[in-house]
Specification:
550 residues; alpha/beta; seven-stranded mixed beta sheet; four-stranded antiparallel beta sheet; globular; binds pyridoxal-5'-phosphate; decarboxylase
Length: 550
C-alpha cells in the first residue's frame, strides 16, 4: 500500500492519493520549495545559455515510455524539472532573449496565476463566479483608460473589453462577428426573411466574402479567414512608405474585389507589424472607411499596443475611433504572464449576435435579466480562466506611472542600440527607422550603399522615430543577394553562440536581423554585449576574401 493511503475518510474511500494530491502540510512544503526554485531560476537567468543545446526527441530519451502505475513522491517529480525540462527550455525571460516579441513574466503576474489556479472554475456565465466577470470588466475599463482608447470601448457604453487567449483568437472571434454582421445586413437589405432562405443565401454569400489586410499583417488574419470559411487577400506594402497600408490602397482593393463580384467584409489594420513595427495610415484609411460602413475594421496592436501607455503615442489611440475592434497583448510587453490578450469592441452586441447560443442548461435568472455580462458570448470557447486577477495584480503593483517608466526603459535601451548601430554604419544598415524598441538591421557588404533616413519634418508632433522614412538606395539585385547572404551568415553564427536569441526575417526580399529587448529583465549591459558580439561576428565574416571577386 502506498504511503499516501487515505485512512481517515471512511471505509468507502480506497483512494491511494490524498484528494488534493498531497496533504495541506505537504503542499506548504512543496509550494515553498517551488517558489524558492522559481526565484533561483530567475536569478540564474543571465548565466544560462538562452537557447537549449538538445536535439529533437531529447525528452523521450529521459522519460519512461509508459506512465507511472503508482503515484510518486513530490520530491521525485520536482527534481525532474532541472534534470529533464530545463535542458529543453528556451529562456524567454532571460535578458539575453531579444527574439520575436517578448512573452512577459513578473512575480505579481505569477501570483495572479497561482490564485487563478486555486479558484479554478469554468466562468462562462456571470453566476459561475460573479467576481471573475466583474473584475474582468473593471480591469479592462482601467486598461482602456491607461491606453487612452476612445470612450466608445468602455463598458459603460455599447462597447467593452474581454480577455482572450491570444491575438489570433481575438482576430478569429471578431472575424466571425464581422462575417455575421455583413451577411445579416446584406440579407436585410434584400428583404430575405424566410429562415431556410436566410440559411441558404448566407452559405452562398460566405464563400464570396473577403477579409483583407496589408502583406505585412500578422499571419493570424489569413488563418482567421480560413477558420471563418471566407477568402483572404493581402495588399503589398513598400519600404518607401515605411511598410504602412494607406487609404488609397484600401480603396483600390475594395473596388477591385467588388468589380469581381466579391464582398470585402473585414479589413485588418496593424499598429506595429511583426517584421518592422510598421503602423498603417489610420487617418487616410478612416476617410475611405466612411464609404464602406459594412466592412468591419480590426486593429491588431498585439505587441505595440503597450506603448500607448505613453502620452506621446496616444495620438494613435485617438485614431482608434476608426475601428470596430482593437486588440493588444498585455502578455507581450505589459508585464503580465501569458495569456492576457485584451480585445475591445465598439459594439458588444455584434459579438453576442454572432456567438450567443443559450441552451436550457445555461439559462439562469441573471442572464435572463440582461443585467449581467456572460463573457462566453464574447469568445469562441464556453469555459474561461480567471485571467483578470493577474492583470489586476500587475496594474496595482506598477500603477500608471510605473507602466510608463517600464515602457520608456525599453525605448531608451533601443535608442542606445540604434546609436551603437549607427556608430558602425560602415558595417550595418537600418532597414527601417527603429520603432517601439524594435531595430531591424542588415549587414552592409563591403562597398555596399548605406540606407538613409529621410529628413524629419519640422513641427511634426509625432515622436521622432515615427517621423523618419527610409530612402531606398536602389540596391541592385546582385548587391541585395550579397547583403542577404552575409546577413544570414552573421545571424546564423550569432545564433550558434547560444548567448543571445535574436530573430531573422525577410522583409520585401531583404534578409534582416531583428533586435527587440523588452522583457522585464532587459538591461543596458546586455544591449552593449549583443552589439559587441554582432560587430565581432560581422567583422570576421567581412574580413574573409570576397569569393565573387576572384
Ligand atoms: N499580431 C502581431 C502584430 C504579432 O506580432 C503577433 C505575434 O507576435 C500576433 C498578432 C499573434 O499573437 P498571438 O500569439 O497572441 O496570437
Amino acid at each position: 500500500m502506498s504511503s499516501h493511503t487515505n485512512q481517515t475518510n471512511g471505509a468507502l474511500d480506497e483512494r491511494s492519493v490524498p484528494p488534493m494530491g498531497m496533504t495541506g502540510q505537504a503542499f506548504l512544503d512543496a509550494a515553498g520549495s517551488v517558489v524558492n526554485d522559481i526565484e533561483r531560476y530567475y536569478t540564474s537567468l543571465p548565466s544560462r545559455p538562452v537557447l537549449p543545446s538538445i536535439l529533437p526527441g531529447y525528452l523521450q530519451k529521459l522519460l519512461p515510455s509508459a506512465p507511472p502505475t503508482h503515484g510518486e513522491p513530490w520530491a521525485d517529480i520536482e527534481s525532474d524539472i532541472e534534470r529533464t525540462i530545463m535542458p529543453g527550455i528556451t529562456h524567454w525571460q532571460s535578458p539575453k532573449y531579444m527574439a520575436f516579441f517578448a512573452a512577459s513574466s513578473t512575480y505579481p503576474g505569477i501570483l495572479g496565476e497561482m490564485w487563478s489556479a486555486a479558484l479554478t472554475s469554468a466562468n462562462f456565465n456571470w453566476i459561475c463566479s460573479p467576481a471573475v466577470t466583474e473584475l474582468e470588466t473593471i480591469v479592462l475599463d482601467w486598461l482602456a483608460q491607461i491606453l487612452a482608447l476612445p470612450d466608445l470601448f468602455l463598458s459603460k457604453g455599447e462597447g467593452g473589453g474581454v480577455i482572450q487567449g491570444s491575438a489570433s483568437e481575438a482576430v478569429v472571434t471578431v472575424m466571425v462577428a464581422a462575417r455575421e454582421r455583413y451577411i445579416r445586413r446584406h440579407l436585410e437589405r434584400k428583404g430575405v426573411t424566410d429562415s431556410d432562405e436566410i440559411e441558404d443565401q448566407s452559405c452562398e454569400l460566405r464563400g464570396n466574402l473577403v477579409a483583407f489586410a496589408s502583406a505585412e499583417a500578422h499571419s493570424s488574419t489569413k488563418k482567421g479567414a480560413i477558420i471563418a470559411g471566407t477568402r483572404f487577400r493581402s495588399i503589398p506594402v513598400h519600404r518607401s512608405n515605411g511598410y504602412a497600408l494607406t487609404g488609397k490602397q484600401v480603396r483600390a482593393k475594395i473596388e477591385e474585389l467588388q468589380a469581381r463580384g466579391l464582398h470585402p467584409y473585414y479589413l485588418g489594420v496593424t499598429l506595429g507589424t511583426t517584421n518592422t513595427c510598421a503602423v498603417d495610415d489610420f487617418e487616410s484609411i478612416a476617410e475611405v472607411a466612411k464609404d464602406y460602413p459594412d466592412i468591419w475594421i480590426h486593429c491588431d496592436a498585439a505587441y505595440t499596443g503597450s506603448a500607448l501607455v505613453l502620452p506621446e503615442y496616444q495620438y494613435l489611440s485617438k485614431q482608434m475611433t476608426l475601428v470596430d475592434s482593437f486588440n493588444m497583448n498585455m502578455h507581450k510587453w505589459l508585464l503580465t504572464n501569458f495569456d492576457a490578450s485584451c480585445l475591445y469592441v465598439r459594439k458588444r452586441k455584434h459579438l453576442t449576435d454572432a456567438l450567443s447560443i443559450t441552451p436550457t442548461y445555461l439559462k439562469n435568472q441573471f442572464t435572463d435579466s440582461g443585467l449581467v455580462t456572460d463573457y462566453r458570448d464574447w469568445q469562441i470557447p464556453l469555459g474561461r480562466r480567471f485571467r483578470s486577477l493577474k492583470i489586476w495584480f500587475v496594474l496595482r503593483t506598477w500603477g500608471v506611472e510605473g507602466l510608463k517608466r517600464h515602457i520608456r526603459h525599453h525605448l531608451k535601451l533601443a535608442d542606445l542600440f540604434v546609436e551603437l548601430v549607427k556608430s558602425r554604419s560602415d558595417i550595418f544598415r537600418l532597414l527601417t527607422p527603429p520603432k517601439f524598441a524594435l531595430t531591424v538591421l542588415t549587414i552592409k557588404p563591403r562597398d555596399g550603399k548605406p540606407l538613409e533616413l529621410a529628413e524629419v519634418i519640422k513641427g511634426d508632433p509625432r515622436p521622432f522615430q515615427d517621423q523618419q522614412i527610409p530612402i531606398d538606395p536602389e540596391t541592385d539585385d546582385q548587391e541585395l543577394q550579397k547583403a542577404n547572404d552575409i546577413t544570414k551568415e552573421v545571424y546564423t553564427k550569432l545564433d550558434e553562440t547560444k548567448e543571445f536569441f535574436l530573430t531573422a526575417s525577410v522583409v520585401g526580399g531583404v534578409y534582416t536581423i531583428r533586435v527587440v529587448a523588452v522583457n522585464p529583465l532587459a538591461e543596458e549591459k546586455y544591449i552593449r554585449r549583443v552589439f559587441e558580439l554582432l560587430v565581432e561576428i560581422t567583422e570576421r565574416v567581412l574580413e574573409r576574401p570576397d569569393e565573387t571577386q576572384v
